[in-house]
Write a structure and sequence with these properties.
Chain lengths: ~200, ~375
């Protein structure tokens, strides 16, 4: 019986050697090691109070006026002094969102209802837009036309990309509901017409 | 004014909106000169982030000129050329007093699990963002800085998120001299993380992705050794083979919620929204580092659960560190590194898109067409 006399580094005390020495690295890479000292990096120290870190001139900020009942996490003591005012909740999605905020961030219900409200919101707005001079247009709004001027085919073909299988799904996800909605509308209108005649 | 507006998953357009008003005495209104689209915007664009409302303007990377200031603003004046970190923060809460600007407690009523971010859904505070001609900037005395005269606009806009995030990611890796560092993802964040790892003394920097043109950039821009994961049967085994079966000392996840490489993981998160994010890259990181290693997670995940391999992380004694980047804390050092010529952030910019054509910009960046790495957005002067 023969014993293998190999002492591979990882299975003994030594760390596998590096291919390049520090001098070689310094010569090859601009700035190699300028932040070598772990204690002299900008995010150190962590969780220690640092005086005069910012130019804030308040202890607790003044409060921004609340112009409508602003939804907030039940994990907060009160409405934060400053907040965004981008899109006040409205319609069915708005009611769903207000309801979701009854659950803490620790509850899946909070996030699942919010995600569902997002889908409802999109449809509410697509429908609303049909009554405006600027209706939603799934072709121009998805930017798919850029496939033509921006190498849609050559960016993908023969490139060993891992994301191609689900690129195929994207149009289905975007166009699918529109086709479904058009079909439902068509069937509905036809049924109503038949009933009349 | 013109602004990018979200219309539902995969759909955005440019609309005419009112110029935002001052809503708080320390607000400023900034006229945007240059903005960018970030990998994080793709999570919103694909409808993955809960409470992303139709009508919202995205954009958390922007620079511009101060147009108007609230009555309590002292540090800025109208006409100043400013860069604005992607975090909105008050400067005095428990977190801000300790430099954790990305975790500010006074700016996001919608959630306690994340701070305030411009144009990043209501879950991050409901603020409109900077892919627009004008934007409201809260806490103008705290967040923005006047751009140094020597710095050009493209470098400045990359300092509002992508570069500091990559640099912060390398710091959370706790790199010591000679460490083998593997970066998953060769997007803007991954490229900057790889580059920063060298500054902290890494002995070897490896970058993994599946987009060849980005791996090429990782070699030239970040001096890294690269591997395309589609060329290997099992990238974890390959990582072991090239590190004498020890594994890397540090891994950085610069991919996040929409990781590819596992169809079920990807589709269940990105398309079906059944989990917070696809943790393919994070799981590869957990399995390909050595025992006792540190993993720095810069990739963003949604607030729902994700199928992460915590068992392996525990059994291997790993340290997992992560956060949204506290951007402004990184600035003084990064300014020095840029001045010294160690970093040239704008080298990764591939596209400069007029705001009017931002719809195409989103599609090109999302579908990774045209060798896109970093698209900038240029509003027309109002
Ligand atoms: N923590 C923060 O403060 C912060 C800030 C900015 C961005 N981010 C997050 O960082 C991530 C990257 O941002 P970006 O702008 O570079 O985005 P990006 O989309 O340009 O880059 C992601 C890269 O990962 C690659 N990739 C996909 N699956 C992979 C896998 N399994 N293994 C290796 N690579 C894979 C993609 O091909 C792509 O090149 C995003 O999740 C973004 O949300 C976090
Ligand atoms: Zn970002
Ligand atoms: Zn704060």
């Amino acid at each position: 019986m023969t014993y293998i006399q190999e002492r591979p580094p990882t299975y003994t005390q030594e760390k596998p050697p590096l291919a390049e020495s520090v001098d070689q690295l310094r010569a090859r890479i601009p700035g190699w090691g300028v932040d070598l000292d772990p204690k002299d990096r900008p995010s150190v120290p962590k969780l220690r109070r640092i005086e005069g870190l910012t130019h804030a001139h308040w202890d607790f900020p003044q409060r921004q006026p609340e112009k409508w009942p602003r939804e907030r996490s039940v994990e907060h003591k009160f409405l934060t002094p400053v907040f965004g005012t981008a899109c006040p909740p409205r319609g069915v999605s708005g009611a769903m969102r207000r309801y979701a905020y009854k659950y803490s961030e620790g509850r899946a219900a909070h996030w699942v209802i919010l995600l569902a409200a997002d889908r409802v919101d999109a449809w509410e707005n697509h429908l609303r837009s049909l009554a405006t001079t600027h209706p939603d247009n799934p072709v121009t709004e998805t930017g798919v036309l850029s496939e033509f001027g921006h190498r849609g085919i050559s960016s993908r073909l023969g490139k060993k990309r891992a994301d191609l299988p689900h690129h195929v799904l994207d149009p289905v996800i975007v166009a699918g509901p529109w086709i479904l909605a058009a079909r439902v509308a068509y069937v509905g209108v036809r049924a109503a017409w038949k009933r009349r005649h | 004014m013109q602004a990018m507006v979200y219309r539902g998953p995969y759909k955005v357009r440019v609309e005419e909106k009112d110029i935002p008003p001052i809503e708080h005495p320390n607000d400023a209104i900034v006229r945007v000169k240059l903005a960018a689209i970030c990998g994080s915007d793709l999570h919103l664009y694909h409808g993955m982030m809960p409470d992303t409302r139709v009508g919202m303007t995205f954009g958390h990377e922007f620079i511009g000129v101060v147009e108007q200031i609230g009555p309590s603003v002292q540090e800025l004046k109208v006409g100043d050329r400013v860069m604005v970190p992607f975090n909105i923060f008050c400067g005095t809460c428990w977190y801000c007093a300790r430099g954790l600007y990305s975790n500010c407690h006074n700016v996001n009523p919608n959630a306690t699990a994340v701070g305030g971010i411009y144009g990043y859904s209501h879950t991050c505070g409901g603020y409109d963002g900077g892919q627009s001609q004008y934007v409201r900037v809260p806490f103008a005395d705290v967040g923005p800085s006047v751009i140094p005269a020597w710095m050009d606009d493209e470098d400045a806009v990359l300092l509002t998120d992508a570069l500091p995030t990559g640099y912060f990611g390398a710091q959370l890796g706790d790199i010591v001299e000679g460490d083998v560092v593997v970066v998953f993802g060769a997007g803007p964040v991954g490229l900057f993380a790889a580059k920063s790892a060298w500054l902290m003394g890494a002995g070897r920097v490896i970058v993994i992705d599946h987009l060849q043109y980005r791996l090429e950039k990782a070699r030239t821009f970040a001096h890294a050794e690269t591997y395309n994961f589609t060329e290997y049967d099992d990238i974890v085994v390959h990582m072991k083979k090239i590190t004498d079966h020890l594994g890397a000392d540090v891994a950085i996840d610069a991919v996040g919620a929409e990781a590819d490489g596992n169809f079920v993981q990807h589709v269940s998160s990105s398309q079906l929204k059944l989990q917070g994010g696809s943790p393919v890259a994070l799981n590869w990181a957990i399995d390909s580092v050595r025992k006792g290693a540190t993993i720095s997670v810069m990739g963003a995940y949604g607030p729902l659960f994700s199928a992460v391999k915590f068992g392996d992380a525990m059994n291997k004694g790993l340290t997992l560190r992560m956060n949204q980047c506290p951007v402004k804390r990184q600035w003084p050092r990064l300014f020095e590194h840029i001045r010294n010529g160690y970093l040239k952030p704008s080298d990764i910019v591939t596209h400069r898109i007029p705001l009017e054509h931002i719809t195409e910009g989103y599609h090109i960046f999302s579908a990774k067409l045209d060798e896109c790495i970093k698209p900038l957005v240029v509003p027309s002067a109002a």
